[in-house]
Amino acid sequence: MDDISLKALAKINLGLDVTGKREDGYHEVRMIMQTIHLYDRVEIKKTKSPAIRVETNLYYLPVNEDNLVYRAAKLMKDEFKIKEGVRIVLQKFIPVAAGLAGGSSDAAAVLVGMNRIFQLGLKQDRLMEIGLKLGADVPFCIMRGTALAEGIGEVLSPLPPMPKCPVLIAKPGVSVSTKFVYENLRINEYTKHPDIDKIAEAIKKKNLKDVASGMGNILETVTIPKYPVIDEIKSMMIENGALNAMMSGSGPTVFGLFQGEKDVRRAYDALKQSGLTRNLYTSDIHNNRR
Ligand SMILES: C[C@@](CO)(OP(=O)(O)O)[C@H](O)COP(=O)(O)OP(=O)(O)OC[C@H]1O[C@@H](n2ccc(N)nc2=O)[C@H](O)[C@@H]1O
Ligand SMILES: Nc1ncnc2c1ncn2[C@@H]1O[C@H](COP(=O)(O)OP(=O)(O)O)[C@@H](O)[C@H]1O
């Protein structure tokens, strides 16, 4: 096999809490991670020339070592002394710098894809270890499904599949840097922490309503004051039938969980009309692990 085409799926955080800060500046988290069916397409072709070449449909994305797919390919080449090169064609559909782990998922796809086309025979755990060098969310993007993430996001405990439901994804026309959000997080005794265990319990009981009512993201305390439009989008989703709506990751994307297709359509139409969002997609829960 000389080439492979893979989906790089986005994630949402059904819950996100920060419990401490490490000496290296990274934060200790407790998060409920969920893969959704919104994806980039990553094609990888083996080439005789040793170079890594990247092409993408988004003109503003770098195609050098600043692109996570380039970094992932370089890491695999160096680690496993691969002499050949790769040509990577990246078709982006996941909004960039949105809190949906698009870049991390693209990198995960390159690790998985190169493991296959170069027949390296690496187990998933090993790929996840390598992935952590590229970003805290990469191990989850390799595993997929539903999981409790601890540590800096890399200590993963699989959870049973989240109940299926329509998901509305709405990103306002602003971009947020994850680094900025973590650096500006201030936690004190008044800060409300989401109950991560309650969400995990609701998932185990397959109770969608309790998952929705338990949703919470401590990073909203940084991103929403800076971009109040996030709150407007959340309110609009809830007023139009969402079980609940919340910011994903460091934002600014808002997702809503819905009971059925009719509800999600109503909220989609309302948001489309409002002009509050630049990217608006209906999606759903993707439970299959890799
Ligand atoms: C907030 C989350 C929630 O899933 O997702 P996104 O909003 O990025 O999608 C993640 O914790 C983001 O993970 P990821 O985007 O892979 O992080 P990295 O590239 O490793 O780090 C980006 C920046 O965030 C900070 N960071 C990241 C993870 C973490 N647990 N603590 C941190 O303080 C790092 O210091 C770094 O400056
Ligand atoms: N393949 C990639 N896709 C998207 N962004 C990338 C990629 N490679 C590098 N980046 C850079 O990483 C930053 C964060 O990207 P992304 O993963 O989309 O966001 P988030 O961490 O919020 O989920 C962007 O500002 C972008 O310049």
Give a verbal description of the structure.
This protein is an alpha+beta fold. The chain folds into 2 domains: 3-158, 2-Layer Sandwich (Ribosomal Protein S5, domain 2), CATH 3.30.230.10; 166-284, GHMP kinase, C-terminal domain (Alpha-Beta Plaits, 2-Layer Sandwich). 33% of the residues lie in helices and 29% in strands. It contains 10 helices and 11 strands. The protein has helices at 68-79, 102-117, 124-132, 138-143, 178-183, 196-204, 208-214, 220-226, 229-239, 261-274, and strands at 3-21, 27-47, 52-56, 85-91, 146-150, 155-158, 166-171, 216-217, 244-247, 254-257, 279-284. The strands form 2 sheets. Strands 1, 2, 3, 4, 5, 6 and 8 form a 7-stranded mixed β-sheet that branches. It has a 4-stranded antiparallel β-sheet with strand order 9-10-7-11, with helices on one face. A hairpin with a 5-residue loop joins strand 1 and strand 2. Helix 9 packs antiparallel against helix 10 (261-274). The mean pLDDT is 97. The structure holds 4-diphosphocytidyl-2-C-methyl-D-erythritol 2-phosphate and adenosine-5'-diphosphate. Keywords: ATP-binding, Isoprene biosynthesis, Kinase, Nucleotide-binding, Transferase. The active site is at residues 11, 137.
